[in-house]
């Protein structure tokens, strides 16, 4: 009997239930009333919140502090790894998380969070995260747009969307079929610099659904990192899967006074630091104060002088290298040629000496054989004479 391979597909519909412990002795009627009250409460909170909310502006837009957006990918499948086109396709949940203080709400009614409908989601600001290494990407819309947004009392926003895309992967096939490829997925804010939006990975940056695999490739470990890239018009933060856990907040220069949260406007000569206008009459009272522009101008002059010194040193080094090429290198080559010539002459002398010694030894051997022959003939003649 012939057997065929088969696969059973199981479709599961999950209903998400909020994990809230009910009060003791609640009957069904009271539970229904409580649910209705919570529904009305959510509606009133959203209506009041959105009445003054403007989705055109990111959080902290008028401040100098960027909104920190945490990013994570939950990979659903990896397919169509095409070596001829050097592309690969992947389907994922793209998750983002940030804090928008404008969405804070009161928690007196023990309301832990609010889940938003797709239509309401359109009224909330979301990061303009864009893929820069894709050739084609689309968002799933069946049966409705696959988007999830939850807001919390402290203004935290959790946003998840389902994305499928084809991405570029420059492959090295010299070791085929034992090749190992590294395929990046690059993301960035398309319209804002890192002074407005700062993307960070939520570790692990990429998580795989159980059972995800490919028929031809073994899926290796993922890596992630974050880097800055300077364009001709702006500096943007690029995010590429996957990241070493680095606290980059320590690398961002503070542009406001840590005491008064006001922009710097003066420079304290005594403390050698930037200060704000309020510091002049408080923390740095009686110190020697000057304008930032004056200090910056002097700093530029110092930098220019140092740059000129570096240029001069580079020129001197270049001249030395050229001198080495034209003179020293020629002397070294001449010395090398003379040494090789002397070695060849010594080698020829050794060869001639060895040949002469060999010739002498051959002559001695020949003379010894002649003497032995003459002695042998003499002895034979003597024996014959005796026998006669």
UniProtKB/TrEMBL annotation:
Chief location of this protein within or outside the cell: membrane
The keyword Cytoplasm belongs to this UniProt entry's keyword annotation: no
Residues of the B box-type domain: 252-292
Subcellular location: Membrane
Membrane topology: Multi-pass membrane protein
Pfam families assigned to the protein according to its UniProt record, in alphabetical order: Neur_chan_LBD, zf-B_box
Protein name (Swiss-Prot/TrEMBL): B box-type domain-containing protein
Lineage: Eukaryota, Metazoa, Spiralia, Lophotrochozoa, Mollusca
């Amino acid at each position: 009997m012939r057997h065929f391979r088969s696969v059973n597909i199981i479709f599961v519909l999950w209903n998400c239930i909020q994990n809230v412990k009910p009060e003791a002795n609640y009957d069904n009627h009271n539970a229904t009333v409580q649910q209705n009250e919570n529904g009305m409460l959510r509606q009133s909170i959203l209506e009041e919140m959105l009445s003054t909310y403007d989705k055109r502006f990111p959080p902290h837009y008028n401040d100098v502090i960027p909104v920190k957006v945490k990013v994570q990918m939950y990979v659903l499948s990896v397919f169509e790894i095409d070596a001829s086109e050097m592309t690969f396709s992947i389907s994922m949940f793209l998750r983002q998380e940030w804090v928008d203080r404008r969405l804070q709400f009161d928690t007196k009614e023990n309301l832990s969070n609010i889940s938003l409908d797709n239509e309401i989601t359109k009224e909330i600001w979301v990061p303009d995260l864009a893929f820069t290494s894709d050739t084609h990407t689309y968002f799933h819309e069946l049966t409705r747009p696959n988007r999830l947004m939850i807001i919390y009392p402290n203004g935290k926003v959790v946003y998840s969307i389902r994305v499928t895309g084809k991405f570029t992967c420059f492959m090295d096939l010299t070791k085929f079929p034992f090749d190992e490829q590294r395929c990046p997925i690059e993301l960035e804010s398309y319209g804002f610099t890192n002074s407005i939006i700062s993307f960070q990975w939520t570790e692990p940056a990429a998580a795989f659904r159980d059972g995800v695999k490919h028929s031809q490739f073994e899926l290796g470990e993922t890596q992630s990192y974050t880097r800055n890239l300077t364009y001709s018009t702006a500096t943007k933060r690029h995010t590429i899967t996957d990241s070493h856990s680095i606290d980059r907040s320590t690398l961002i220069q503070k542009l406001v006074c840590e005491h008064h949260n006001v922009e710097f406007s003066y420079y304290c000569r005594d403390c050698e630091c930037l200060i704000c206008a309020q510091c002049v009459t408080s923390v740095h009272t009686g110190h020697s104060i000057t304008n930032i522009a004056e200090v910056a101008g002097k700093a530029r002059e110092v930098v220019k002088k140092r740059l000129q010194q570096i240029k001069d040193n580079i020129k001197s080094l270049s001249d030395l290298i050229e001198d080495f090429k034209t003179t020293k290198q020629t002397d070294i080559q001449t010395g090398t040629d003379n040494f090789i010539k002397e070695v060849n002459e010594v080698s020829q002398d050794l060869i001639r000496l060895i040949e002469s010694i060999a010739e002498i030894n051959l002559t001695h051997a020949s003379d010894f054989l002649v003497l032995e022959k003459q002695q042998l003939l003499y002895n034979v003649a003597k024996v014959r004479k005796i026998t006669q």
